[in-house]
Amino acid sequence: METQRPNPDLLLQQIMGEEQKRQVRGKLKIFFGYAAGVGKTYAMLEAAHQASKAGIDVAVGYIEPHARPDTLALLDGLELIPPLLMDHKGVAIREFDLDRALARRPQLILIDELAHTNADSCRHAKRYQDVEELLKAGIDVYTTVNVQHLESLNDVVASITGITVRERLPDTVFDNADQVELVDIEPDELIQRLSQGKIYQKRQARQALAHFFSKTNLVALREIALLRSAERVNKTAEKRDYYAGEHILICLSASPSNAKVIRTAARMADAFHGKFTALFVERETESETVAQRGLTENLRLAEQLGARIATVYGDDVAYQIAEYAKASGVTKVIIGRSNNVKYWWSSKANLVERLTSLAPALDIYIIPDTLSPYRNKRRLLGKVQGEGFSFEDVAVSLAILIFTTLLGFWFDHLKFGEASIIMLYILGVLVTALVTKGKLYSAFSSLISVFAFNYFFTAPQFAFQVFDTEYPVTFLFLLIVSIIVSTLTSKVKMQAKQAAQKAYRTEVLLETSQHFQSAQTQQEILTELARQMLRLLDRTVLIYPVKEEQQELSEPLVFAKDAELESELYTTPDERAVAVWVYKNNKHAGATTNTLPGARCLYMAVRSHETVFAVAAIAIGQRETLGAFEKNLLVAMLGECGLALEKDLVTKTKNQIAIQAQQEQLRANLLRAISHDLRTPLTSISGNAGILMENGDILNEEKKKQLYSDILDDSIWLINLVENLLSVTRIENGTMNLTMQSELVDEVIQEALRHVNRRSSEHDIRVNLEDDMLMAKMDSRLILQVIINIVDNAIQYTDPGSHITIAARKSKDMILFEISDDGAGIPDEAKSKLFDMFYTVDKNRGDGRRGLGLGLSLCKSIIHAHGGIIGVKDHAPHGLTFYFTLYSEEVNCDV
Amino acid sequence: MYKPRILVVEDDKAVRNLITTTLETQGYQYHTASTGGESIMEAISNQPDVVILDLGLPDMDGVDIIKKIRGWSNMPIIVVSARSEDRDKIDALDAGADDFLTKPFSVEELLARLRVTLRRLRYDVEKAGKSSSVFVNGELKIDYAAGCAYIADAEVHLTPIEYRLLCLLAKNVGKVLTHNYILKEVWGNALPGDTPSLRVFMATLRKKIEKNPSQPQYIQTHIGIGYRMLRIPE
Description:
The complex is a heterodimer of chains A (895) and B (234).
Chain A lengths: L7 H8 L4 H5 L3 E6 L6 H14 L4 E5 L6 H5 L5 E2 L3 E5 L2 E5 L2 H7 L3 E4 L15 H10 L3 E7 L7 H8 L9 H6 L2 E4 L4 H9 L6 H10 L3 H23 L9 E6 L5 H15 L2 E8 L7 H15 L3 E6 L3 H12 L3 E5 L14 H8 L4 E5 L5 H14 L4 H23 L4 H18 L3 H19 L12 H49 L3 H16 L3 E7 L4 E2 L3 E3 L13 H13 L3 E2 L10 E8 L2 E9 L8 H68 L5 H32 L8 E4 H11 L8 E6 L5 E4 L1 H18 L5 E9 L2 E8 L6 H6 L21 H11 L4 E5 L5 E8 L8
Parallel strand pairs in A: 1-7, 1-8, 2-3, 2-6, 6-7, 9-10, 9-12, 10-11, 12-13, 21-23
Antiparallel strand pairs in A: 4-5, 14-15, 14-16, 14-19, 17-18, 18-19, 20-22, 23-24, 24-26, 25-26
Chain B lengths: L4 E5 L3 H13 L3 E5 L2 H11 L3 E5 L7 H9 L6 E5 L4 H10 L3 E4 L4 H23 L4 E4 L2 E4 L4 E4 L2 E3 L3 H12 L5 E2 H9 L7 H15 L9 E4 L3 E4 L5
Parallel strand pairs in B: 1-2, 1-3, 3-4, 4-5
Antiparallel strand pairs in B: 6-7, 7-8, 8-9, 10-12, 11-12
């Protein structure tokens, strides 16, 4: 959500908790009329003027340019957002400019004709989607709608006026509007207006009067509009969250008449406040090409009307519907009559009969199927192409027939009986059914087999005549047997294929899920997703992960189908913008959808609940679509991935909490240790200073010097402690923030020696470098601390006069530092604990406070953060050697 | 005898006392300021020889004060900072500070830094009269016109980059130069990847001019920050 300037009204609204959500979202007001010319736009503009007078920031987003003069006059004094001018095949068209409106951000915007379909180059296919985006941005919208544009009333209106409207508006938009104002006018008055030329030009007016604006039509439309508004009021009044127990199911099909079934069911679901499910039974016989498109359209329609889409697999539609209905508590099934044709030769009971017997508790509604010329054409076209005619299969069938016949001649020659030849033909049909697609070929094979048998092998040979009266019976049986055999065979084949597909789906999902389980990071999970998608779809896939903190998309991971560099096509700013839109709106968009269909990819959110974790993009060429099976699988896969990502997130959060708890514990330990260890030197400092101030006169010089030096020693000890503590906090606050630079080892050691305890003068410290040009990658400040801590340690735990050697040499790509002393050394069991926090050797020693047990554990953290190792070993003949490693830096001196 | 005037800018009273007491014992004159605004007023009205500036002042960022002063004066500025982050020091040096001290510091260290700065100042004043085609510092001599460097009158053979490095340090004697600044001046760019080569060239240069490279006399290293050429007392 974009940030808004805080204004007092808004704050007030936010306080009114319950209302909050609605307030952040803009309000939609629809001016609703039953025909053109009733004065919707006029009413809208008048309302806008009133709002403007009330001090609301109003802008006009889009008004149809052919608006009536009276109406256009009302535009005076309102700010116009200039429309987008586009060129569509040489014709200049004007479109509402969504981006400009969002940038302008008025409080209220006017947009005419909500049902309008946008030009191809616009972001959304439909204007109501533009409006949706405006509302989401918190802008109020006034708009207009005519009754014939409402999706669910589409058929009814078309049956009255005889005109099918192409631009349709989902009913949900209308029903969810915050306000609907019915703009009503007597039909007589409307006709009068029309004939006065107020609505159309005179010539057009006469035409319009004759067709659309006949009084009967107008009265009917008005009635529908009034009823619809009343219905909406009812709905708002009863808006409840429960379903009245009704669950309405329709069966999706590719048939164009299916749309009417869907609309009817949607109206019914509304009326009953019931659940609404559109079931798609995927059958093998469903042809893929033209019918698929019809199916996609119907699927989309059902979605728009608020249906939940479900897919089941199986060849027996009735059985599948009945099973689904039982499982999901469906109460009513709505069926179109076209689903219900009973062929005279069909041995099966029709769908309704079967459904009634399979699920007796189900109410079944049958919707009459009225044919329009448009539809008939469609269906014929579907028929021809739908059968999937293939010359190859015809050739194969014919070849089998010829081979069978030749074999038959041979049998005949060998004087085998007719029964063998009949069996041969049945075998031929069986083979045909096995190797060809669909029942058609084997059915024809059966028929031709009968004729061939008749022609070639029965007396009289080479004539379609029979002498023996027994033959027709034989033919009939041959025909029946071969048809049954072929049907059975193709059925078995189909089931095998479905089973295989189902198994494949299950396998892919299972495998994906397993991979997700084993993936550790978000990156790995997404890579896995992309790999599976690439395998499944064989298309270029892009994944845009969401950056958690910034709430934005990072650069996409591209998984190209081919090695060739086509990926640039898909990573343009335009494509990215679609991905961002998907992320922000949590909806599918891009190719094959209604939103930004011009994009080269289909964009889908990878989400769990309402959180979007990433956006997946699938490259889809023009005029291509994804199959229902693939798409279903894809959605399941994305869902799986979303869950995996959520799990990952939860684990991460858990770990973080655990780490935090651990840090809290450390900090508590640290504080306890410090509060104890700080007191001692502070007591000494303040006490000594006090004595010097009070009794300075009576103390001799030597005594005074002693006190001064004690103060100095203790304060230096404090200084070192503070330095270590600062380094500790730098590490504790999450990951250590290293500033790596290449440093000369020699310089670092020299610098460290300048800072070691001043008692070092009592020790013999030597530096022994293999090469004074050794260079290592390090955060110099922290490594200084490491060397100082270790050397100070050596000074502290060895007697004055001991030798301390600092050596460094290169070993492979690391630099090994060794700091040795020839002191007493420490027992082995102490060595392992040396680097633990708050561990000090020999706690009962008098000046135990000298070791806080912080220094070495800090060294360990620092060296580990540098990717090196640290340890301690015995130094021969006695003493200790501390060693640690750092990455060396190769120097190129040719610069 | 001329007593150098020092402006001490420090908001913490105890530290201010420490510094001023130290200065007094060494016979310096001093003024004090406890805020950024005050410090600029004092710098303008008293024209001190050296400014000792605490970076963490209540009213202004120390780096901004340096920039303001550098707007009209080249007076040496020694930065005192409690921040242990190198970044702050580098920012201050890049803004025009001459040297830095990190709290806690010892009194000797403060005085040593002050002496170095004053020596440079005196040298600058002396130099103002003469033509300066020859740079002399202890036994080191650079003849800019001939493009040669000498140690104890024996010529030192330097590569072009070493010579440029030496000249840069000599021209800014007494001043801490940050890695970035040196890279920009000598190599013409400042890619972080170049710092290793800077280290190497500096080490080879040192080998050629220092008697004992691990106890350098001329070129001082400030780990993580940069380098400085020290002015050798005559």
